[in-house]
Amino acid sequence: MGNEGRLGRLNSLLRRRGVVLPSYEIYGGVSGLIDYGPVGARIKRRVIDAWIDHWSSIGGVVEVDSPTITPKPVLVASGHVDEFNDHMSECSSCNAVFRSDHLLKDVHENPDSLKAPELDKMIAQSAIACPSCGKSEWGDASPMNLMFPTRIGATRGGRDAYMRPETAQGMFMLYPALFRHFRQKLPFGAMQTGKGFRNEISPRQGMIRLREFNMAELEYFIDPEDPPTPDLGEWGSSVSLLPDPEGPHAGEHSLTFSEALDSGIVKHPTVAWFLALTWEFLVHVGVNPERIRFRQHASTEMAHYADDCWDCELSGEHGWVEAVGIANRTCHDLLSHEEHSGSKLLRGWRQFDSPRTETRDVLAPKGAVIGPAFKDEAGAVTKALSELTEIPDSLPFVLHLADGSKVEITGEMVTRKNEEVTLHGEYFTPHVIEPAFGIDRIIWHILDHGYSEIEKEGGEYTILGLKQTVAPFDVVTLPLFDKDGMGDLARRISSRIDSLPGIQGDMDSSRSIGRRYARADEIGVPWAITVDHASLEDGTVTVRRRDDQAQVRTEVESLLSHLSSGSVGDLF
RNA sequence: GCGAGUGUAGUGUAGCGGUUAUCACCCCACGUUGCCAACGUGGGAACCCGGGUUCAAAUCCCGGCACUCGCACCA
Q1: What span, in angstroms and rounded, lies between the C-alpha atoms of A125 and A121?
Q2: A81: closest CA among A193, A152, A164?
Q3: Nucleotides of chain B touched by protein CB (<7 A)
Q4: CA nearest A445: which of A274, A280, A311, A317?
Q5: How far: A176 CA to B17 C1' (Å)?
Q6: Closest-approach nucleotide to residue A460, Cα vs C1'
Q7: Which nucleotide is nearest to A327 (CA to C1')?
Q8: Residue A522 CA distance to nucleotide B45 C1' (Å)
Q9: Which residue from A18, A110, A112, A123 has the least number of CB within 10 angstroms?
């Protein structure tokens, strides 16, 4: 935690310099919504670009882009409509509000599954005491859906929909297209960056809990029997791990990713790989490695879809904050979408090493008998016969149809056969490992970790120590004075800098040179180049390094090539 | 959502019934300076929103919104 007032000064800086500001401020503002200003939007752009680059580099991963408006059935299948419908009960005596299911923790095994009337009944029957005042006078449980509802269609009618609470469902919807794109071979991944929406009850803590936020998610589809097991030796650093507090490894451990997997703390090799890749990304964009830890969810805390879940937490002015969730979602989503939609396209194909021949008894239907006997139901009967897993020893027998009804099958209707089939492979529902990044929370910690208040010549001085990869500008060009042609030369140099691919410069000619260095330092510009009288004579400029204010004189051409190759530091 | 506190230029603040609304930083122009928030002159910029009380409200009261803290919530 920082010293007293640091948080306030950092927030002031972010507002003053157009990094992050409250939204709609002239109309009073809205809690949980923020704007990225001209400086912040550039930082955000670069963090997202870095994220896409990072995950692209592991191969077999593509970017997709889906709508934020999501039809209700999609979110019913994913479980969000139910899971997001927590109920709240209010104490009529002291007005305190609690989650209804939490009140029933001790009297019901799975209170989360109860409907509102059942909750009310059980709270009354068990005479649950208010944790706040001890009385037992409860109002009715009322639903609290954290999703933003909307409707598709401007006229009457239309379909119920919600703003997406996560981008992940978009990737699941695209699974068939992805499977085709990757020529029907697992593993592969799809990633997406974009907005997610959660109607938080009480957003707090600036950019930590937002109602509309930026997320970046990767869904990595694997064959659960053949998960990728990359070599983790590449990551030699030890990291802080907090395994399940109810499990065998409870307590804080400092281990390499490889050790964490070998010791069984991380259960899944692909999850371990993603923990390492997540750590690498965060450090790459400027998060302080000492302020990163991975915390395993207790089984009781697990999201409805997850099997094993790790949070990557970052420490800053708001304490330890979950910034990335890495979950093994198993086959939950694809299977549930298959069940709800009836689609058969949400599967993977596992080729056998050699074809397998299976023989099995079947009862082959005789269409000529079954058709007239069952008429409209004949199709369902035929289907049920083909799906029989156990062939009855004697006929007639009672067959259960898919709709629950029963029919009697007699000897004339079927032929008992011994069928031989050759199987070259089998269908299965892929499992999904998902790293989900909260971009705003990561940006906050980049800013927090980069913000330093130092003493300079007796005065207070502020530097935002952003890595060049996420700095709002790579370099600022400063004419020592905007006269004698120095301003014109500076503008020409600045324009050449801007034309370098991937490099963005800024220019500042207003007021004293020291003030301009300070302004650039404050928003994290790593390099400043100064055009002075000598520049007019010999085409050299001075390059100043933000972090130690060291200066070196160099040719403009040399500077431009070092900027292009990202090696300005080599000039010093 | 509950309780308490706080809302004054871009930022930090003074004013607490009657002021041309204070000060500093800031921003702009000109001059000066000629490599680390220098200086001079001039200029710019604010009482969260809506009601009420009062001759008069930034100031008192009520409601809303926002922020901070505590409780609750946060897949």
Answers
A1: 6
A2: A164
A3: 1-3, 7, 10-12, 26-29, 32-39, 48-49, 64-69, 71-75
A4: A317
A5: 72
A6: B37
A7: B75
A8: 22
A9: A110
Q: Give me the residues paired with residue A149 across strands.
A: A162
DSSP conformation letters of A480-548: SSS-TTHHHHHHHHHHHHHTSTT--EEE--SS-HHHHHHHHHHTT--EEEEE-HHHHHHSEEEEEETTT
Q: Which residue is nearest to nucleotide B26 (CA to C1')?
A: A16
- Residue at the smallest CA–C1' distance to nucleotide B34: A480
* Residue A471, token pair as written in the block: 């700095």
Q: In the predicted model, what is the mean pLDDT of residues A280-297?
A: 95
- Give, in Å, how far the C1' of B60 lies from the CA of A171: 58
The 3 state secondary structure assigned to A37-89 is: CHHHHHHHHHHHHHHHHHHHCCCCEEECCCCCEEEHHHHHHHCHHHHCEEEEE
On the question of pLDDT at A464 being above 80, the answer is: yes
Q: Which residue is nearest to nucleotide B2 (CA to C1')?
A: A96
Q: What is the pLDDT of residue A509?
A: 93
Looking at chain A, the whole-number percentage of residues with pLDDT higher than 70 is 90
Mean pLDDT check: name the lowest of A238-252, A370-384, A514-528, A554-568.
A370-384
ipTM score of the complex? 0.90
Can you give the distance from the CA of residue A109 to the C1' of nucleotide B69 in angstroms? Answer: 36
pLDDT of A1 > 50? The answer is no
Looking at residue A2, its pLDDT comes to 42
- Return the minimum-mean-pLDDT range out of A112-126, A288-302, A325-339: A112-126
Q: Does residue A374 surpass a pLDDT of 60?
A: yes
* A273 CA vs B23 C1’ separation (Å): 57
Give nearest nucleotide to A509 (CA–C1'): B28
CA→C1' distance for A106 and B71 (Å): 22
Higher pLDDT: A363 or A178? It is: A178
- pLDDT higher than 90, residue A37: yes
Give the CA A50 to C1' B36 distance in Å: 32
- Nucleotide with C1' nearest the A531 CA: B35
pLDDT for residue A472: 97
Q: What is the pLDDT of residues A499-517, one digit of tens each?
A: 999 999 999 999 999 999 9
Which residue places its CA closest to the C1' of nucleotide B25? A16
Rg (CA), chain A: 31
